[in-house]
Specification:
alpha/beta; Rossmann fold; 2 domains; 13% strand; DNA-binding; EC 5.6.2.3
Amino acid sequence: MDSIYSVNIERAVLSSVLFNPDEIEDILGILKPADFYLPAHQKIFDVMVRLHNSDMPIDEEFIRKRVDSKDVDDSILLEILSANPITNTLAYAREIKDGAVKRELATLATTIKKVAIEDEVTANDALDVVQGELYKISTDSATSELKDMEVVTNDTLSYIKKMKELGNKHLIGETTGFYDLDKRTTGFNEGDLVIIAARPAMGKTALVLNMALKNVEAGKGVIFFSLEMPAEQLMLRMLAAKTSIPLQNLRKGDMDDNQWSNLNRAFEDLNTKKLFVDDGGSININQLRARVRKLAQNEDNNISMVIIDYLQLMQGTGNKDRHQEVSDISRGLKMLAREMKIPILALSQLNRGLENRPDKRPMLSDLRESGAIEQDADIIMFVYRDDVYKERDEARKEKEASDKGEEYKSKFVNKPVEEAEIIIGKQRNGPIGTVKLDFQKQYTRFVDKENSNDAPIEVVFESISDTNKETNVEIPNIL
């Protein structure tokens, strides 16, 4: 039991605070009252914290007045007062924290036995409980200490030097796959939560598939959680974008000899890339976190990006209202992005309300359950194609005329390439604005507009193949 608590160490830390109350500021960055093993020590430290928060003296007399003698007798306080002075209080505090985490893990072992054997729950529900409890322990054990100005300025200088070594290249993080969008955002950076939102049929899934394709081509590992579409359908769209074979031809297997040859060459390259797809259709934040961690443990996978299609289809982890569930999910995704030091892209639906506006370009307020999502996201992008609404309007007019027995000739021209707008509605570390792309409908492919690509995409770590060249992509592994 010595490895999970030490009465002497607890006593020494409490004694150190009594003799030097200023030390409690640093200790509070590591410990909370429940981290102490002895209940009497927990109560004494809790009183110390309350005295500190009230700007009152932390001394023997003030503590005695605020603890119940039934819980803390005089002998315990005397032992604390008579403890030998220590010089490195924070080292002792970390030992207490270490023991507290081990005790929580021991308690979790009991919980595992209970939900696995005694409780009448499914295996999935039991796993959910265990993953949730383990996550609470892991986040609680991750202590952070205040950084003084010298540490902050040194870290900042190191960052500036690193950026200088990159030669002022505009792409710092993982590529978006598009020159102007990379230029506007510097790419998706580590720890970023990126929300990509649109109304149905705007092409948001196609957009993130294009982004995934560009990153796996660059040797990066991408995890794609598809909660709406089977992996095979995702693969067909990705192959259409990669090979320039129309999606409808791929679906029917209607291809000429050259197209079959191109497809075969693409499949030969698939196994060399790292794209992992989970198309189970049902997942919560605990399960997602566990699967990402598992894949990231293998450094060969080089996991550099996670994509979720889409956020509103994720399940909650308890009996909460949907707004609270979405809040927990978005916060969990942001914390996972920071923990793994990778960008996480989450697709999101938009409210129907924008359909009633003359200008249907999305705004931040159009996000479903927008409060928590808007707060947690580092970047929020909207996908908008005006031709989608023009086609609908003309179809409606045609139907209304037909119902009246009148003739109406649709003015809509179904073009193979439509202009798309990527509207950056929020960017925590950069400008907002609109980037225009072209959407090639038959290939479900977004591409840079011809006049925008005046220079090649500058990838810091690895070069990205040109869209029109043969590229490599991996068949998704269904987890």
